[in-house]
Amino acid sequence: MASGPGAPGRKKRATIWEVARLAGVSHQTVSRYLKNNGGMKPSTREKIDRAVAELDYRPNLIARSMRTQRSNRIAIVLPELTGFVPTPMLKGASAAAHEAGYTTDVVGLEGDESRRAEGVLSLLDTERAEGVLSFTPLADLAGRAGTDPRPIVVFGEFDDNMHSQGELAAGQPAEQIVRHLAGLGHRRFLHVAGAQDWASARNRRAVYAETIAQLGLESYGIVDGDWSVRSGYEAARDLPANSGVTAVLAANDYVAMGAIRGFQDRGMRVPEDVSVFGWDNEQFTQYFLPTISTVHGDREALGRQAMLSLLARIRGEPHPEVNTSNLFKVIPRGSSGPVPGSPLPG
Description:
Layout: H1 16-23, H2 27-35, H3 42-55, H4 61-68, E1 73-79, H5 87-99, E2 103-109, H6 113-125, E3 131-134, E4 152-154, H7 173-183, E5 188-193, H8 199-214, E6 218-224, H9 229-238, E7 247-250, H10 253-265, E8 275-277, E9 294-297, H11 299-314, E10 328-331
Parallel strand pairs: 1-2, 1-3, 3-4, 5-6, 5-7, 7-8
Antiparallel strand pairs: 9-10
């Protein structure tokens, strides 16, 4: 069977000239677009966007690197790879790099922060990468990120065990959840916490307790959970019938799912008898019965912003700060509602 560039039916790679012709601009303008040099009218960029999409245009990175003696590769650094990969952040970062004409390599570096920092410098010194975006701390490289001329951006959102930290671990949405439920009439709460070796679990727990105190509400207690469905189920199953709890803040959506099932197995209705709020906006929350109230964290946007900061550094431009002001959004769904008019049944 015939194969290769001349084989019948094989789609020929679109060229920059074809993109320019379809968009009605010069090839120099398309070249500026691909380099993301800025200064381009939004209407022009939109026309080229449409042409690139219609032709499924992909820059010839190999040819470009031969002309410029550049690798056109960016390394995204994580701790030594484990079973957990921050897919949304990688997706956002990779998309931003690709739009600027770069390919990305996800690199898991062994050792502590200092060892990872040595690995990052090796990637740059051997020209295997033109820039490095790290989602994990890199010892003193983080402190030099604002003055060191090398294209390194440290956005250390994961520790050595791939536990979220920094902005990803912020607990502020817990205050929004408690305030939202208090506005629906709830006065007595229960929190099923996550594993305390996670900064995110500790922060959510602390903000929950602080908000309860600030608003003059009551907390029946805090259950030490471990992020699992089982911990949520057992917390709901074991809650005394006379506890007076009408609202539960779960550490994540899996815990919330377990709590809902635990209440249902007791013959209770969610949210008519008790409201349950989760966290993370996992896909199943939209299809569970009832749909689960949750917190959405736009991790893909974080990854994109971090990569744009690195790209600006590679070009020698002022690099934008990563904006986390709108990172989280509280999403009420079917598992939460107004306070019931009767105490929990046995």
